[in-house]
């Protein structure tokens, strides 16, 4: 199968990093196609960044559909433009936050989320509510590590992240940790070893869910909310969407 | 004061229509500046339409700020990009759905919403939840009138809308009606006369709230969730946001 | 327009204070008629005080209706007897807590409430739930300043109030402050200057909402929950309500 | 023990009726003292009626305390002034709606409520929410029988009530019926025989709960929310509350 | 009346202890029959213990029905197998957690729960949600006292329990205390004296509710959720349930 | 990997059926070991059946752990004893209802559940709430097909099931269908073809999730809620659990 793995920001180093993570857990016949949009912010750390990133992200979804991919993954913890992407895709579209919550809830009663900037906490809360996992989350903690600082992680950054995970466990009662940024994808294994609880990275979780849906022949329902958008005119930079 | 009244779709007729509605209730010293984005869909009827419209809508917010407006109104019932707009604006940003829910809750115990397409019902439900008005809403009803059909409303369209309002009252127990599309703005008065309950249009509601905030010197808090986004690089069509 | 501004307690100093606040933001053609009931407690700090105050408060609503006012404001943060008042009034009835929550949610993502006595905290929580703003409130904090101590505020009282506002911001993540007592009405401006976040006083918020509804010709729905009460006999001190 | 059984409306026939119901289930050493306030409406069918009735109801609570009763019952399905009464009482105060919900939840998974006027439905919903029984209620149904029509029930009224109970069972899935008015107290037995499900009357439920609390020496907590109100001045008709 | 008082664990000392508590508050004509299952764990401190205990507990329910008891009490704070028991019983089945929550809510606005092991906290939270008392609970606190340590309580154990109750009051705002284990049944009186708030033991609460239901002729509804299970074959150790 | 696929009822035909379903989607190196408990009911259609089935089901979990399986699946739509099983297992334990909800939410906005007996509806509602999917479910519909009737499905049974799925889509707005019984496992493909929406069977969903967790090295957290139960004595038929 072919998976359209989308890094919604324009940081190429991040795209490569998550491609490596995804490939490391993919089945032999799973082909990971990693890319990022041509237009948009170099990192996503606010509702504004997310809104801007969403427009070009949808181009990458559309390209994937045209190239015949079997599933799409939106590899940013805010799961930006997920509903919009599902409308234009016939294949499944998976957000890494939702994917991580699902697997975390299978191996723990309550999981903690450890994420980047303090100001993204309400966004994480909203995702937990959107997906229905609020009562299964022991708390969301910010590290105030900038997304791009995760491109190449130094010792201090790792320690800061690990310390916040430990507080999630000891203070909040987290029984597993969900990593709240695609850029933390390569740290899950080491953290898990040191913390003695399951540590879930959404990127690899999404890959396994994409494979699962593909093997079960499950595609996005085109009845109701995720039906194709009505054909209409688009102007300016978005004329290519006109039908 | 100056109000930046934004029609987030690119239909010029709709922009003119809501400008007239807004002007009709504005105080003498309120100057309505109505506009729509250069880029995007001609109407907003799906999550996809909304995601595409959001990017260029934020340009119009930014322009308003630069022109020294005192408030912004996003005149589409989905309140698209509201949080993103509040991040980049120092002046208040008001969505017409939120504005309508607020005034409706002051004159009724439970209000009904009558909107356009069936597939937008989940979006309305999400807005009610976002703002906290779910328990005060007797139900959301779709008319399956396309947004652009509202540009110039014929007799049949009006009757279909009125009939759904009547069902909201008699079947759902609605005590007031919120009109679920900016394009219905000019029908509030006539419907109210015929239905004998308050009928609330979000466009005029938002104008009065914008004036209220201005007169009380209340601006968007720049602490926390609506703080200015971090400066960073943007690529391609969004390079103008780079700092 | 004429606004029936009701201080539900019998403290005349408080009535004068809120009249000044209301007048300071009213439009030139808005006439504020401030009064308080003849019967009841000198301050409202418990469910008991509120229950007793409610009976005579309704007389003042009725008098306002007979005098042809265009809106009523119940200027006590518990919004006492709001539903009952809306039943007997044809004009809008606005509570200051609900009004403050509405405007606070337009300029912040999450607001904090700073109020008087610890024992009124559950009442504030109930109001947040009644109106649907619980998820938008970062917390309610008590100062244990008695309501009557607010009649003339000394330096220590002001500092205690300000300190609690600061804790709401730094500890709870409040992005705006709602003042939880009509008696704090004259402090909003100074606090806002010093705290660098929006500070919302419900009295002035309610005045602007009353003007807004009036300008939009919106009155209390007489269908459903707020229909006129059935005519019936009343005994004793309430015989004047018999019909 | 002595129970202060309060009919909050001024209809003497209703007081006598509920006294008979209460006495019929009381233990031999339970003394029922039934009374109604001197001031207020002859029946309670709106928020307005309830607000007016509350003031004088609190006098009856106070009198009961002074007479050394062991518990108070507020015998109106809206449980008016319950929190206020608990503040001024040291002995337990029980509302008949809350009492009925409790016992109904012990003998069924989901119970239905059948009440009087359509316009009281939101009040019932609010009570279910206040007490936490919303998810255990299959629905609230109105009969539009006026409260005073229950003083002496004719065949048609009984049939209308029974029919609505049957619909609650067959259409809503009610497994037990809660009677939504103290005036229906004498019908529980006959309805239960005919409906083949438990039928719960709040008046008798409250009597048993009052006896239960008394036998366990449980009184209203005077810590926190139900602490004695602060002493203060009251004016006019309520001067007797001044301290 | 006869009450089938079931200690779901196999610790005989615990059975005797709760029998004494139950008898101490029972009416003269209430006959308490205390017993415990033949099969199962000596204490219940996990979901696993509860699942194992449930099977044999249902035998004791069945025996009680055959012996003609008038009510059943499941005297373990997890209320294990309550729904299953109600299905096979025609008489009321009462869990001690649910019973304690009910009475606590009659004498306080918010109660705290003080229980045994930390790992049972989610189970208590689930019960609060199942019954609808989550918003009326100020918090659940664990003492990490093992259930069997409660069989004969020493000074240190009592002090640890009392200290946690005090913290529930001073830190969480508990206005009453619910004891979270049947084994604490004999401590309610002494704790109540020392804490100056109501202390509710579920065992005695359940006895009074059982008597209340009996005196009102209320039995488990056999319509809907608690209808008799369908007759079917059972194998192995459960063949006696085959019909 | 080895999966311990448990049919919690004692119907051997059902065990064989779900084994075939599971095997049909398993990866080449996944070994399905299907079994059912020695003790318990031949089908699970009530809380009573579920409570009885749970005890012996835990033996099968324990045996699987001892045989070195890599994951356990509880193949009954009530997900019986899930928390208890997770406590005693170190490998992941997956319930088929939870698994189906997860995959359904990835390919639809709102899914419908079509299940067996009407009396199991509250159990399904409880599962939706337990897992947090209530707001994503358009409704649960019963077919009143007995579980054992699904062992070999005739034309009429299939048509009844299909008809209820169609009503879920057209009346409730279901965009995907979750099959509410392991015994329907072999019908998912045919129904999906005919209904034109995704149809999700929990058995195959659970197999893919078990494989996913295994490939990611994720096991049940042994911190907190799912820690090993405390060692203790068990009596009678459960003595083998004593430690």
UniProtKB/TrEMBL annotation, chains A, B, C, D, E, F:
Protein name: Hydantoin racemase
Pfam families, A to Z: Asp_Glu_race (PF01177)
Stored InterPro entries: Asp/Glu/hydantoin_racemase (IPR015942), Asp/Glu_race (IPR001920), Hydantoin_racemase-like (IPR052186), Iso_Racemase_Enz_sf (IPR053714)
Organism: Vibrio superstes NBRC 103154
EC number: 5.1.99.5
Lineage of producing organism: Bacteria, Pseudomonadati, Pseudomonadota, Gammaproteobacteria, Vibrionales
Matches recorded under PANTHER family: PROTEIN DCG1
Catalytic activity field: a D-5-monosubstituted hydantoin = a L-5-monosubstituted hydantoin; D-5-benzylhydantoin = L-5-benzylhydantoin; D-5-isobutylhydantoin = L-5-isobutylhydantoin
Family note: Belongs to the HyuE racemase family.
Gene Ontology MF terms in the entry: amino-acid racemase activity; hydantoin racemase activity
Top-rank taxon, per record: Bacteria
